[in-house]
Design brief:
single chain; eight-stranded mixed β-sheet; 8 strands; globular
């Protein structure tokens, strides 16, 4: 009978897993990536920090958001996986790239744990600081991505988002919570203009949360031709004279697209967003996340430039998981 505790067998299995994951990752990514589209310019509000809670530190974990959310806790100690993996929930909006990225983050943590099991031993647990960090790695972060397509007549929503971008304090969690509340309130006040929606959520191991959130953020930001209005971790940027200006879209504009991406310490029990009532309940729950639970937030919308247009075809191309309400 084979001795599966032999390091040679473990190393061989690790190589086999890696060899299988790479082509599978490429194949799924090609299937799930949205098709290129002539998207409009947009705006963005966000910030946050993925700091490890209650962990003795010998060095900084970074702080704030500068295009990414600080520097994440890295590592993986011991010979086992050691924490529960909760797969992403694909059902609300049909899955897609969101669920795939969360799944890949979990796979990455598994591979790191296998690598730690091959190369390490139980000695690190003799160090209280490392043992505490390992306990933190067992925690999970709840990721939520809400996308809504509204009729272009929802101009007050764009005005509200511009006002938030110019005045909100995105350098603090309380300021980010205000942005989240105001954004969800603005959306809730115009239910008659909701046409499409998609809601996806999943839990990610803490040590993979920051990188997963950044990938999701970059994926959504890449759908914009440019970011004319932004307020990220206290850094406010608006369109300058001589460049494209923010303002009302062209009269031929058809839709406004809004993405709300949240990382929370607490797990949210959200309703199915395929109906207006379900979307309303989910928005209320997302907007009620406390500042102590809110880790990171991104609000991204388009169009934003004066005279911009987002057609129905461009909307469903850039956001293929949207479902008609």
């Amino acid at each position: 009978m084979a001795n599966y505790s032999n390091p040679t067998h473990i190393f061989s299995r690790k190589l086999w897993v890696k060899a299988l994951i790479l082509p599978l990752t490429i194949a799924i990514a090609l299937l799930l990536l949205p098709l290129p589209s002539q998207a409009a310019s947009g705006g963005r509000i966000g910030g946050g920090s993925f700091r490890a809670p209650s962990i003795p530190r010998t060095g900084g974990y970074g702080g704030g958001y500068r295009g990414g959310y600080g520097r994440s806790y890295r590592g993986g100690y011991g010979s086992g996986i050691g924490f529960p993996f909760i797969l992403p929930i694909f059902g609300f909006g049909g899955g897609g790239l969101f669920g795939f990225l969360i799944l890949m983050s979990i796979v990455g943590v598994i591979l790191n744990s296998v690598r730690g099991g091959v190369n390490g031993n139980n000695a690190p647990y003799d160090n209280p600081a490392i043992a505490s960090a390992s306990a933190s790695a067992r925690e999970t972060v709840n990721m939520v991505q809400m996308q809504i397509g509204l009729l272009a007549s929802a101009k007050h929503l764009q005005s509200d988002l511009r006002r938030l971008a110019s005045s909100a304090n995105t350098a603090t969690t309380s300021g980010l919570q205000t942005v989240l509340q105001e954004t969800t309130l603005s959306l809730l006040r115009q239910p008659e203009l909701w046409v499409y929606a998609n809601l996806e959520t999943g839990d990610v191991p803490f040590q993979a949360a920051e990188s997963t959130f950044n990938r999701l953020s970059i994926t959504e930001r890449s759908k914009l031709t440019k970011e004319l209005t932004s307020n990220v971790s206290g850094q406010v940027n608006t369109a300058q004279a001589g460049r494209a200006q923010s303002g009302e879209a062209d009269l031929t504009n058809e839709y406004i697209a809004v993405t709300v991406l949240v990382a929370s310490k607490s797990k949210l029990s959200l309703s199915n967003s395929n109906t207006s009532e379900g979307l309303k309940n989910s928005l209320q729950k997302i907007g009620s996340i406390s500042s102590t639970d809110l880790m990171a937030l991104e609000v991204i919308w388009q169009p934003e430039a004066l005279g911009d247009v987002l057609t129905a075809e461009e909307l469903v191309t850039a956001y293929p998981n949207l479902k008609h309400l």
